[in-house]
Amino acid sequence: MAGELSFTRVLIANRGEIARRIQRACRKLGLESVAVFSEADRDAPFVAEASHAVCIGPAAPAESYLNIDAILEAARATGAGAIHPGYGFLSENAEFAARVEEAGLVFIGPSSEAIARMGSKIEAKAAAEAAGVPVLPGYRGADQSDDRLLKEAQALGVPFLVKASAGGGGRGMRLVTDPGAAGEAIAAARAEAKGAFGDPTVFLERYAPRARHVEVQVLGDAHGHVLHLGDRDCSLQRNHQKLIEEAPSPDIPDALRSAMRDAAVRLARAIGYRSAGTVEYLYDPARAEFYFLEMNTRLQVEHPVTEAVTGLDLVEWQLRIARGEALGFAQEDVSFDGHAIEVRVAAENPAENFRPETGTITLWAPPGTVRLDSGVEEGSVVGHHYDSMLAKLIVHGADRDEAIRKAVAALDDFAVGGVGVNLAFQRALITHPDFVAVAHYTASLAEMFPCGWTAPVPDDETRALAALALHLHLAPTLDTPWQSLGAWRLTGAAGRPGAACYWSDDADAPIEVAGQGARLEVIMPDGTALGVEAARLTAQRLSGRMDGAPFARQAHVLRSGDRWQVHLLAPDGMTMVPLRTLEDRHLQRASGAAGGADTLRAPMPGAVVEIRVAPGERVSKGETLVVLEAMKLLQSLPAPVAGLVAEICCAPGDTVAGGAPLVRLDPEDKT
What we know:
Blueprint: E1 9-12, H1 16-28, E2 32-38, H2 45-48, E3 52-57, H3 68-78, E4 82-84, H4 94-102, E5 106-107, H5 112-119, H6 121-130, E6 138-139, H7 146-156, E7 160-164, E8 173-176, H8 182-197, E9 202-206, E10 212-220, E11 226-238, E12 241-247, H9 254-270, E13 275-284, E14 289-296, H10 303-310, H11 314-322, E15 339-346, E16 348-349, E17 355-356, E18 359-360, E19 363-365, E20 371-374, E21 381-382, E22 389-397, H12 400-412, E23 415-417, H13 423-430, H14 433-436, H15 445-448, H16 460-474, E24 500-504, E25 511-516, E26 519-523, E27 529-538, E28 541-546, E29 549-560, E30 563-570, E31 573-581, H17 582-591, E32 599-601, E33 606-611, E34 618-619, E35 624-630, E36 633-638, E37 643-648, E38 655-656, E39 661-667
Parallel strand pairs: 1-2, 1-4, 2-3, 4-5
Antiparallel strand pairs: 6-9, 7-8, 7-9, 10-11, 10-13, 11-12, 12-15, 13-14, 15-22, 16-17, 18-21, 19-23, 20-22, 24-25, 24-31, 25-26, 26-27, 27-28, 28-29, 29-30, 30-31, 32-39, 33-35, 33-38, 34-37, 35-36, 37-39
């Protein structure tokens, strides 16, 4: 690998935003890119933007993005000389890396031996210890008998973690706080590890409460040069999945930070690491100590924050290193400028237990002043087959306070329609006092939102402006004789020229907009009247004066199903206000869409995993009837009413569409 290697075409064995990110780096170096895609991704942006594209199978990852044979055949058919795995899927699969090399192709990443060694958490910790990197006290022995594990658990004391050796993302992990529960936790972790990774091996380690997740980016070439590119903090997590990342990690003593970075370089050098990699630590502020967690032998999702503070293009350097180039700079040449924050944009509803959201993106209006690594655009279809992350928003400031302010401003300037996203939740996280004060840790969400997070409710001014925006959107652009007749539209209220009524989902009474020309009146459901002058809606901007006070808000109006959506910048961020006209309400009633409370329907497309009831069985309201899998997550779907199961409309293994009936009930209360 130390010699110069030549390739001009790179196959990207991935999808979405990371595929587009790698394509940009290829174009920068004058390389052609090959996109491989599943049938579900045929119309995705990363496919259209590639130099060449090959369909490698159905939507299911096992039949496409995890199909090694299909990927290698696509490389052969297109004449690709190298393969970049991105992150996820096959990126840390040692067998895949070995087969790429056996096929005479260049694997853009570390050696298959390094991937295999670091892929076992037990072996990785042994390598870390040998390199003088601190590890948490625990048991990582080969004796996996119940007696030995229970004896080691007793010696370790609570609290401790049972963790899968081959695991990741929190799977195969159990926290033990009661010594009597150790046996059950070990059995459960083994079973989950076996099912998820095919390997039941577990290990035990001390649990550090209120710890933070800090990682160091390393870069090595095939000539023995290894250096670090600083550190990142990824402590804001949900179920061990990162939400917000930043560089550098804040509030760490300088000496400890240097020790973390030096230890990461020692470990990478000891295993002969090449390409980009990440050494992850658990940082315990109370003890002022850090401990090795694992090494990710791939590009990280959060790599852009490191790029922002160093000015280095990590994907470009992955490609250069894979061609056999030596790093053209030394450790002392790496400088760090300011602070960067990355916010993950995901198709999910945090207010409803992070329920996955699917559908067609009808509005995609990101901020134009910051970096956005995105896998979608307006018109993209978000399905249930893959991870829910759609994009990453990256900001850079002179310091952490400025980076937070820029992140909030960018989130406020981001509007998405057609598919629910987590922007409001991320804004609540990044403005939370615990995050601002660096008092957060890996399990702090429960403290930050002890009753769970609820979406902000639009205030009266925002709802009034939303109705006004919709009114202006629906108003004719030219004067017509019909306007002089007063209530010329079906939505009009008799006696009020040009008046119309708009209903929000949570109100029985409408918001009324009346008047003509430059003077309008907005009447709220409680009867409050607001005078509006010089109102205009142009280029997604609503402006004018309300009760004499000027207003100017970003506003997007679009149709979504049986209602309108108005995306409006409110005091607490971008807010979506759903509204119906009188026509919409009449059509809803005529179609019977308001009914159906006796039927459990799929909230999104997905695969039926389990049906927990049988015909004729009596169920309570809220009782789980069906378990649905969507975007790698299991969703427990509750009974909408109490009653008897009248009909089951699906079977385990079925793929169902959003809105499809799953279980029909005969309600107890038929009034």
